[in-house]
Amino acid sequence: MPPLFRLLALVALALGLALPTARNGQAQDPDKGPKLRPVTTTSATTCFFCQYCASCHCGSKRMGNKDLNACDLRSLLDVKPTADILADYPKAKGYVVPGQPEQSLVWLRVADGSMPQGKGRKPDDAAKAALRRWIEGLPAPKASENLIVNGSFEDGPEMGNDTFKALDEDVTDIKGWVVTRGQIDLYNGLWQAAHGKRSLDLHGSPGFGGVKQEFATKVGQKYRVTFSMSGHPSRGLDKVQMAVRAAGQKAVFECDMAGKTEKDMKWEKKTWEFKAVGPRTTLEFHTAMPATADPFGGPALDDVKVVRVDR
Q1: pLDDT per position as a tens digit, 200-223
Q2: CATH topology of domain 164-308
Q3: Does the global pTM surpass 0.70?
Q4: What is the distance between the alpha carbons of residues 166 and 188, in angstroms, rounded to a whole number?
Q5: Which of the residues 49, 95, 299, 310 has the least number of beta carbons within 10 Å of its own beta carbon?
Q6: What are the start and end residues of each CATH 2.60.120.260 domain in the chain?
């Protein structure tokens, strides 16, 4: 069976969806691959995630990591666990890592009994074994091309020994990017970057700014934006907010500053999707802090990627 169809079949089984049917009307066997549980089209709640995870990690009132939706396999694959959880599970590389249950936080927490929480029904050994087999059988996703140029801001002005540089609105010194709205600061080693050495503070010295980049898109195509978010660690901030805009759509992300230092910025991976409405799309990140906020320190940005979403 082709890898793509096998992945779709596994996703269908995991999320309680109906399998595609062959031309003779019979359901196609997902390559005898690992199954969570027998799932029928009329009883989606018998699947593992629906049965054990949905009450706390699906829908609008999700507990824990608000970016995670356990009823969406793509979310399980793309959203990164928060730093406090990873501190307790240092081997984990994500919620679900295809082919690697020992690196998958979902499996680690189900295996040690810490999930699901509460007094509800717990998965038995057979259900746990099925979950592990399912993760082992997930094919590794193919890497998609990053449409963003210089997403880590490494290619930019010469800074020598300077640890930061203020950049005014409309400046194009950072390759591929244009500064928007107001002044920002480009940091160069003063604090830990998410990738490489450089990152941005979207508040300048002073200023309330942002950055944007334009790239080619296809009308109607979905795109996934991922980026690392933190905040200025030395300004006494409790939380920081950052807005992301593209194709007339907008989302605001928040980051808790507790425990963040220059040596450990505790960067948080954020994910957002948009649908293109034209052949060219401008992606913008800008501060979403109130006008009364500290203009010398705000949300920090690094490691920006945009890829096509092929589902």
Answers
A1: 999 999 999 999 999 999 999 999
A2: Jelly Rolls (2.60.120)
A3: no
A4: 11
A5: 310
A6: 164-308
